[in-house]
Give the backbone structure.
Amino acid sequence: MSPDFPLAPLDLAIIVGYFAVVGIIGYVVAQRIESGEDLFLAGRTLAWGTIGFSLFASNISSTTLIGLAGDAYRTGIAVSNYEWMAGIVLVFIAVFFVPFFIRSGLTTIPEYLEKRFDVRSRKYFSGLTIFTSVIIDTAGGIYAGTLVIKTFFPDLIPGMGPEMDFYVTCFILALIAGVYTAAGGLAAVVYTDILQAVILLVGSVFIAGITFAEFDFSWAQATAQLPEGHLSLMRPMGAEGLPWLGTLVGVPILGFYYWGLNQYIVQRILGARDLDNARWGAMLGGLLKLLPLFIMVLPGAFALQLYPDLGNPDQVFPTLVTDLLPVGIVGLVMAGLIAAIMSTIDSTLNSASTLITIDFVKPRWPDLTPQQVGTVGRVTTIILMLFAAVWAPQIREFPGLWSYIQSVLSYLVPPVVAVFLLGIFWPRTNGSGAFATLLGGHALSITVFLCAQDGLLFADAPIDLHFTIIAGILTALCLGMLVAFSLTLGPPPAEEEIDDLTWANRVLETGPAMAWYKNYRVHAATVLALTAVMLVVFW
């Protein structure tokens, strides 16, 4: 350890205390695990508050804290469009998709594809989700956490070169999260997420407040020297960063996949005790997603005036922490960063383990006891942890963490989004059409990806569009592909087979009478109204 590392003893004590609390929670919860369902879905006992805060904490990861601030520093606050759009998407998911997921008793999202179509689509989507969970989400969390820790501990292990030291730090982070996730499962994940969500919010508020204090709490001073459009949510097509068209056609696609189809996120909703708690939890998560603009993105934008010459935008958040915060608060924010790291890694590891166990192992060996299923889940968690830790250092070869995550998803998710959307809303969609669209859509995505990269197939790429616009175009093409395949590759499914799996001949159910403050429609209207106000202010 470097002798001049910037953490005071009080800061270290706070961080160690956090680790101790997380370890105790994992141990206590592990003692209650009796079956695979307990491990993967917390026994389907989660209440709305737990779900909402867990959704927020799992999403606001170390990749988000670092990536949002870095992109806001580089291109402006339009990067927060990914955040507020989540509220709109979660309202859509809670109203139209959650009822089918809860009533079907799903353990994994790919299960829905088997019920609606056939086992081919389920296996395909499950494999894709495992890949994205490990390579994008888990590895991204490990990389971002290592980046932060290396800021405070340049030489974590004396005498070891920087390259090997980076790898060792990745493995240490992965090991800590992997062990308590394997022991406690989803219950340990969501209960530690509540603690992590609070720390994330408090730490981010401190960063935002102290950054603003550098400008004497004057909005005019904080924005005086920022480039034109830096504080606008809607950027021109030719501007660097997220263009307005990408916000409208691409960000909703990425958000729909992330919040509605991504196992590591939706797993919390699947663990709800009933439909009402699932919906309320989703709405709370959407409400919390309005906060990042103010407590995570704006500080990164303002930092352009404080540190105009930073070589790597991903260093903005660590720099704000080390340069501005007093002793004690640094430890709190570091605990928040560690919380974010753990939240991402534990969530993705648990979801990927769930998919492997439920979608691949259990169908092959159906006679496994609940205890054996739990053991398989724990072993796969550790194996996936090792894969993610090995891949994480390779992310350094990409231009930026946030672009790495979003651009990869822009090519992977369009066929999946198309299949789920038409699967719910168009009963004519059949199994052969869905599977052909998944295969054909990803073949198209690979082709477009190669044509959009300079130096791969062409010296100058013939496709020069922002990846969010590409995501929108690919989704539209996949929707057309699915309609064509479903009309030509077999008859429509029998109505009685899919009656409980689509919106055909259905209306929005009213449910039992309840107080207005419990009505999910009121919650949805509140989230949408607050989002509209924010858009008007920062348009």
